[in-house]
Amino acid sequence: MSTVENVASDTQAMVRHRFSVAQYHQMIDGGIFAPDDRLELIHGELARMSPINRRHAAGVDRLVYLLLSRLGQKARCRIQNPITLADSEPQPDVAVVRWRDDFYLAGHPTPPDIYWLIEVSDTTITYDRRVKVPLYLKAGIPEVWLINLDEDCLEVYQPGEQQVVRRGQNLSPLQFPELVVSADEMLG
């Protein structure tokens, strides 16, 4: 057997270590990660997050401005902060969550706290569609909006449904049907 074959079979035999959310929190609290590490826990594995470019940052800022002005105190908007799922702790760009006076100091929002999530996507569109959106829906989050900057549209995901909203069209979140926003406002 050649050396290349040995290396390939050894690599296939490697086992990945999965972390629980509690173990992940212990690592954070223990200072295991550098302050500038951009990591999130996805399906029990550490995933490095992409750097935020100007287009992405402007998209998130636009959403925050729009949502805060429309929602008032009906909900909290958490920006790029963790949510806790069974075996994951992702950091969606925007999480619209139930109002809590403690600002979730006692623990990150979990699916029953979450009205809907928004991901702003340009360089991560494939990952967001294949990994993050299914993760969110499987966890019981009722609605996910994917702001697709490359294709200049919004992708709206609900359990068993997907809709594409384009410029000139309006949409409302399931939990706030009175909140009507236009794709033009969301896309800038």
TrEMBL record:
Ranges where the Putative restriction endonuclease domain occurs? 22-180
Please give the InterPro entries that the UniProt record associates with this protein: Nuclease_put_TT1808, Restrct_endonuc-II-like, Uma2
Alphabetized CDD domains for the sequence = DUF820-like
Q: Name one Pfam family in it.
A: Uma2
Q: What is this protein called?
A: Uncharacterized protein conserved in cyanobacteria
| Source lineage | Bacteria, Bacillati, Cyanobacteriota, Cyanophyceae, Gloeomargaritales
